[in-house]
Design goal:
Elements: H1 2-17, E1 21-32, E2 35-45, H2 48-55, E3 60-70, E4 78-92, E5 97-102, E6 105-109, H3 112-119, E7 121-128, E8 139-147, H4 154-157, E9 173-177
Antiparallel strand pairs: 1-2, 2-7, 3-4, 3-8, 4-5, 5-6, 8-9
């Protein structure tokens, strides 16, 4: 009985140490002469099966989503804008480097931790023109990041692999914006 309790405590403590998933830390929209700029931070921890697939050469696709709307008492909320950015994270087994790409821009990293830190740190990314948000009104903004399972190779989209370990999605991080 004591051994079973010790094993249970060990299992609980090991699950607390490593929490797989994506957690949004903060976000803000700032006005500039180029338009509205998004800055946000995510803590990204890959589960063991996802990390193993990445180390075997499977490219992971992450989606950053931003939704900005204004509440109206007489009708549905007015959507001010939506922005979506796709990121690709891959591992090259020959060079032993991780490659993070957004569009045609890419950067190589020696470790997975460095690549995930840069992936989770979005700074001053243009999302909307200045005219998208009217001055003096308060808008509700929400941002999240998720692993796009639809971009994985077909065998990984099958139901045995579509478990909780492969579902990496942050909760919507909500914040107010008043231009």
């Amino acid at each position: 009985m004591a051994a079973m309790v010790a094993m249970l405590l060990l299992a609980l403590s090991s699950s607390v140490v490593r929490a797989d998933g994506i957690v949004a830390r903060n976000a803000s929209l700032d006005a500039s002469e180029d338009g509205w700029l998004l800055s946000t931070d995510f803590q990204i921890t890959l589960s063991a099966p996802v990390e193993e697939a990445l180390s075997k050469g499977i490219t992971l696709f992450f989606i950053l989503e931003l939704d900005v709307s204004r509440a109206r008492w007489y009708w549905f909320d007015q959507r001010a804008g939506v922005a979506v950015q796709s990121y690709r994270l891959g591992y090259n087994t020959l060079t032993r480097q991780y490659r993070l790409a957004a569009g045609t821009l890419f950067q190589n990293f020696a470790t997975l931790e460095e690549a995930l830190a840069v992936l989770g740190r979005v700074r001053r990314r243009p999302v909307f023109p200045l005219a998208a948000l009217a001055p003096g009104r308060t808008y509700a903004a929400a941002v999240r990041m998720r692993l796009d399972l639809s971009q994985l190779p077909r065998p990984f989209q099958a139901s045995p692999f579509a478990t909780r370990e492969w579902t990496l999605t942050s909760d919507w991080y909500r914040f107010a914006v008043t231009p």
